[in-house]
Design a protein that fits this description.
The chain is of the alpha/beta class. The chain has one domain: Vaccinia Virus protein VP39 (Rossmann fold), CATH 3.40.50. 40% of the residues lie in helices and 20% in strands. The chain contains 9 helices and 7 strands, in the order αααβαβαββαβααβαβ. Strands 3-2-1-4-5-7-6 form a 7-stranded mixed β-sheet, sandwiched between helices. The protein starts with a helix and ends with a strand. 40% of the residues are buried. The structure holds S-adenosylmethionine. S-adenosylmethionine (SAM) binds next to helix 1. S-adenosylmethionine binds next to helix 1.
Length: 247
């Protein structure tokens, strides 16, 4: 029986060459990618200086942050994903802003305390058994006054029955990789235990691969639009959480 970290590394090593093509090219995938990129660019638009991205995958979010002028360090459990990310960054002519690319786990970040102005980790927390430990590590490596952005799969969302099923097996639907959906209250507590303060929470309803049909996509688009902020945001399937480390 492999540990969740071994499962993640094995899965993403094998998936690295087709990760983007499998997820972000179909109409539903394109929609999810555009929405996520817009949310991230809005939440990070004031960032400048040095940032760490953990679990960058193919560098889908790293590249816009490099274009914004940030000096980026990337860190991923999967050496194959790091290779793909480096290749994509070089192909885009953005390698000057890449300070380092390091193999490592979010649970034991191989960086000194207070090393970065910002940290970001997207679509990673849904693969973690111990989100609180991961948040504490991210908090450790950013400077006082810095901030960090993560997202997580929200258990009590529009997708609650599917999420419960996923949690009963701790395996994603149709993918042999560790998966866990968590409650907002447990993430709020984890953030406060890590000494972090709440800055912003944005809801997003992603399109599961099972809902690729155009009519289901239309329904998801409506759910996504009404779940960004306000009363329905608590039902969004993904929450983006911007947190600050007090001075
Ligand atoms: C779903 S992909 C997300 C990639 C990218 N952030 C995106 O949204 O397209 C998850 C990434 O997190 C990495 N990962 C999973 N568990 C990790 C851990 N414990 N520490 C560091 N990286 C991890 C995987 O290797 C993979 O590259």
């Amino acid at each position: 029986m492999s540990t969740p970290e071994e499962s993640n590394q094995g899965f993403y090593d094998a998936d690295s060459g087709e990760y983007d093509a499998k997820r972000w090219v179909s109409p539903a995938g394109r929609f999810t990618n555009i929405v996520q990129q817009n949310i991230v660019s809005k939440l990070c638009d004031a960032w400048s200086g040095r940032a760490l991205e953990i679990g960058q995958g193919t560098a889908r979010f790293t590249m816009p942050l490099l274009k914004q002028g940030l000096q980026m360090t990337i860190c991923d459990l999967s050496p194959e994903m790091l290779d793909v990310a480096r290749g994509n960054i070089t192909k885009a002519g953005l390698e000057k802003g890449l300070e380092d690319a390091v193999e490592g786990s979010i649970y034991e970040l191989p960086f000194k305390d207070n090393a970065f102005d910002y940290a970001i980790s997207l679509n990673v927390f849904n693969h973690l058994e111990h989100p609180g430990q991961a948040l504490a590590q991210m908090a450790r490596v950013i400077k006082p006054g810095g901030s960090l952005l993560i997202n997580y799969a929200n258990l009590r969302s529009w997708y609650w029955p599917a999420a419960k099923r996923i949690n009963s097996r701790n395996t994603a639907v149709g993918q042999e990789v560790f998966s866990s959906w968590v409650t907002s209250s447990s993430m709020k507590k984890a953030a406060s235990d890590a000494g972090l303060i709440h800055l912003n929470k944005t809801g997003h309803v992603h399109v599961p691969r099972a809902l690729e049909d155009w009519y289901l996509l239309s329904v998801v688009k409506v759910l996504d639009a009404i779940s960004r902020k306000g009363p329905f945001s608590s039902l969004a399937s993904v929450h983006f959480m911007l947190l600050g480390k007090p001075e």
